[in-house]
Write a structure and sequence with these properties.
This protein is mainly alpha-helical. It has two domains: about 70 residues, Orthogonal Bundle (Arc Repressor Mutant, subunit A), CATH 1.10.10; about 60 residues. It is rod-shaped, with a radius of gyration of 25 Å.
Length: about 150
């Protein structure tokens, strides 16, 4: 039998090929500890994968349909959870601020610095505070309706 223990998988997330191998070895009847040794992972990592009910799906095994660990479903769940983590974009918490910045830059031909500066002068009437640098970042990522051509 082969092992992947020569790779240093410490603190790395499982990838799809490792999940597929876990699925195959689990269906072959190997124990959690044996699978962990073969993959060079801690047995609790494998155990969590196999015991998570969200990772179960109906699979066809030897002409029978059984509910078992699904590598594809587990990886889809991981990808979905990964996309939901991290800081959310602050600007989207205040649609009035977005409209104000877009109006100032596109229609009034102001720079983001001037738009933010004017808002501060008239008494910031928005839910959140952002910097001009953040506005430029949103523009670069195409997250607001301002193009680089709208900038002065």
């Amino acid at each position: 039998m082969f092992t992947l223990s020569h790779f240093n998988n410490k603190f790395n997330h499982l990838n799809l090929s490792e999940r597929k191998l876990i699925q195959k070895l689990h269906l072959d009847g190997l124990s959690v500890s044996k699978i962990a040794r073969l993959l060079g992972r801690h047995r609790s990592t494998i155990s969590r994968q196999l015991s998570n009910k969200k990772n179960l799906d109906f699979l066809k095994v030897k002409n029978k349909v059984v509910r078992s660990y699904s590598a594809v479903k587990a990886h889809d769940n991981y990808s979905k959870n990964k996309s939901n983590c991290g800081a959310k974009y602050k600007l989207f918490q205040d649609s009035n601020l977005i409209k104000y910045i877009e109006d100032c830059v596109v229609n009034k031909k102001w720079s983001p610095e001037i738009a933010i500066g004017r808002a501060k002068l008239i008494g910031w009437n928005f839910k959140i505070h952002i910097s001009a640098k953040s506005v430029y970042n949103y523009i670069d990522r195409n997250q607001i309706n301002i193009t680089p051509f709208d900038l002065t």
